[in-house]
Amino acid sequence: MSENNEEPVIVQSIWYKKIPTLLTIGNSICGFTAILWCLQAYERAILKGNGQVIAGSLPDVSLVQYIFASCAWLVIGAMIFDALDGWSARKLKATSLHGIQMDSLADMVTFGVTPAVIVAISSHIYALSGKGYYVGEGLLRYDRLVWISCGIYLACAACRLALYNVHAIEEKKSENFSGIPSPGAAAAVCSIIIMNHSTLDLPEWITTIFLPIYTATLGLLMISTIPYPHMGKWLMSPVKRNRKLIVLAAILGMGIYEQVHLGQGPKMTAAAIITVYVFSGPIKYFYNWITGKNLPDDDEHLEDEAALS
Fold first, then answer.
1. Which of 192, 38, 200, 204 is nearest to 121 (CA)?
2. What value does the CA radius of gyration of the chain take, rounded to a whole number of Å?
3. In this predicted structure, what is the pLDDT of residue 302?
4. Closest CA to 66 of 29, 37, 43
């Protein structure tokens, strides 16, 4: 066949197919920026008015709280990118294995590495501002215990995201998550850090002792088999819509009340909602295990209604 008879090959690049990838990159950049800003906490926390570092000076706790709260808000912003990239990929029919891999890599940076770094550095700096209560010997030295806690979270996040990729490739679908999703675990960590930068004066032990333990626990929940509801599907489900509207209205009212009376935004409201979500999985799991009964999800009600119709 001559060249004149060959049909021209036209390669068209559809620009909007790149939107999910750009949103995923936005997710990872938020995590990267939070890590960089967090690493500056050591220097900025002990800078005095003349911009010089004074040897032996204790960290400025108010500035430290602002820095770590800013890092936590960046992680929350990354969750918006994470939600939008999956939604846009489905709407634009741009889902691919490449996108799945990119999404998990971005999530590892933002929801795996970043929370672990924030907790490790914040715990250390808050301990430096204390009165020496966190001194130990050998393996039980405080900074090493925090490192172990954050390492558990990091390792569990990596295992969970790798397992998610395997399930996505094998096209295993479920109405519930097995274990708490990594954005949910990161949100739980960040909610405590954001609450610490508020009018609510949290005790020092919350950030120096409780938070590292809580972080490690969230890591273990990520790789557990405890089912967690898919909040997006739960909200969009038509089952018991009136009850969901009442719950959302109550949450909105709590947030407005907190903003009007405390003037700090709905920080405690958000932290309370996230905490309820974190503990809802284990509570339901152990209730079913002890009683031998199942508390049906809304999705299960929906399946029952579909079977009867």
1. 38
2. 23
3. 36
4. 37
Q: What is the mean pLDDT of residues 150-154?
A: 95
At 262 the pLDDT is 65
Task: Compute CA distances 55 → 39, 48, 52, 58, 96, whole Å.
Answer: 19, 11, 10, 9, 54
- CA–CA gap between residue 111 and residue 122 (Å, rounded): 17
Pick from 210, 151, 222: nearest CA to 184: 222
The better pLDDT of the pair 131, 14 is held by: 14
Can you tell me the mean pLDDT for 104-126?
Answer: 90
According to DSSP, residue 88 is labeled H
The residue assigned the tokens 């950030």 is 207
Range(s) for CATH 1.20.120 in the chain?
Answer: 14-225
Neighbour-count burial of 37, counting CB atoms closer than 10 A to its CB (0-12 exposed, 13-18 middle, 19+ buried): middle
Dist CA 179 CA 224 (whole Å) = 5
Contact by Cβ (8 Å): 182, 111: yes
**pLDDT for the residue numbered 229:** 76
Instruction: Note the pLDDT of residue 301.
Output: 41
User: pLDDT band at 43, cuts 50/70/90?
Assistant: confident
> What distance, in Å, lies between the first and last C-alpha atoms of the chain?
61
Cβ contact 41:72 at 8 Å: no
As a whole number of angstroms, the distance between CA 45 and CA 128 comes to 11
pLDDT at 283 over 80: yes
| Spatial distance between the Cα atoms of 21 and 18, rounded to a whole number of angstroms | 5
In the chain, how long is the greatest CA-to-CA distance? 86
Query: Which tokens sit at 264?
Result: 């700090």
Report helix, strand or coil for 167.
Answer: helix
The correct answer on CATH 1.20.120 for the domain covering 14-225 is yes
Residues contacting 26, CB < 8 A, separation 6+:
78, 81
* pLDDT for the residue 53: 47
**DSSP string for residues in 209-228:** IIHHHHHHHHHHHHTS--EE
